[in-house]
Amino acid sequence: MFRSDGGPPFRDRDLHRNWVTDRNAKSRRNAVFQDPSAETISKCYADAVDDHFQQIRSGKTLPSQSVRQLLESGFVIIPGPTSGDPFNELPTAYDNVMAVAPGPDFKIASTTTRMSDLLNYGSVFDDIYLYPPLLEACSHIIGQPFKLSSFLARTLRAGTPSQELHADLARGSEDAPLVGFILMTDSFWEENGATRFVPTSQNWTDLPCNRLSDTRAHYSGEVLGCGERGTMIIFNGAIWHGHTGNFTPDARRSIQGYFVRRSARSGFDFRNRLIPAARTRMSPLACYLLAIDDEPL
C-alpha cells in the first residue's frame, strides 16, 4: 500500500517500524524511524476500505437507466449473476443446506423458512453478494463504504398468505440507508408469491401500518417483482414491500440479503462466524464486504 505522505509503502501491517517524514521540521529533509501506532494502522486500513468503495463506485456494469429506476422508484429488476451458469448447481446446493441447517441460524416463521449461515456451506453462493451490478447499486444508495449485513436462504412455503406491506427500517433509523436484494432461485410470478413494491414509497414519511387498516390487502399502484430463475431484485430498504400469497402446491425459493454503512449495525456477524475453511477462500473484496478486517490487529 502506498502512503499519501510520500514515504515508502507499507508492505506488511505487522512491520515493526515504519518510515515517516517529520513535517514539523520544514527546514530539514531528515527522516526519522518511529514505531507504528494504532492510529497509523487504522489510517492504512481506512485507505484500503475507501479504495474498494471508489473502485466499486467507478464501475459501469449497472446501466444508467437501472440506476435511475432504483433511485426514483426504489427498486429495479435486473439479470442476476450467471457467470459459469451457477444455476445448474445453485438450487441443489440451496436444498442441501436447508436440509442440514442446524441451530439458531435455521428459523421457521409464519410463512417462510430461513437459513442465515450460507457462506459456511460453500463457494457456490459467493458470486451473489459479490455481483458487480449489485455492489454498484449499493454505492449509489448508501453513498459511502458499506458492508454485507445479512445473507440468507428464504423459502416461501406453499399455500401461504400475503405478507404485510412493510419497510425494512423504521423512518429515521440510524442504520439507514439499507440496500436489499433478492435472487430468484425459482421463478417469481403472481401465483407463487412474487414480492410486491410500492414505487417511490421509500420517500414517504410514514409506514404502511400508519396508513392502512389492512396491510395484507392489495395496494393501488403496487408492482409485482416477477422474473425467471436467476433474476435479481435490488431495492431501497425504505420502500414499502412484501411477498404476495403463494397459491401453488410448491415452495418458492430465493436468496436474499442486505448491505448497510460500515458503521451501522449488522444483522449477522460474519467476522466471528465464518469457519476457517470459508475464510481461506475469501478474496480481498469479499473480506471488505464481510468486514472481516474491521478491527485490524
Compact overview of the structure:
By secondary structure, the chain is an alpha+beta fold. 25% of the residues lie in helices and 21% in strands. The model is unreliable at 1-35 (pLDDT under 50).
Structure characterization notes:
The protein is of the alpha+beta class. The chain has a single domain (58-289), classed as Jelly Rolls, CATH 2.60.120.620. Helices cover 25% and strands 21% of the residues. The strands form 3 sheets. It has a 7-stranded antiparallel beta sheet. The radius of gyration is 22 Å and the shape is globular. Mean pLDDT is 86; it is low at 1-35.
Break the fold down into its secondary structure elements and pairings.
Blueprint: E1 18-21, E2 31-34, H1 38-57, H2 64-73, E3 75-79, H3 90-100, E4 106-108, E5 112-115, H4 126-129, H5 132-142, E6 146-156, E7 178-184, E8 195-197, H6 208-211, E9 223-225, E10 231-236, E11 241-243, E12 252-261, H7 270-273, H8 276-280, H9 284-289
Antiparallel strand pairs: 1-2, 3-10, 4-5, 5-6, 6-12, 7-10, 7-12, 8-9, 8-11
Key words describing this protein structure:
disordered N terminus, three-stranded antiparallel sheet, 297 residues, Jelly Rolls, 9 helices, globular, seven-stranded antiparallel sheet, alpha+beta
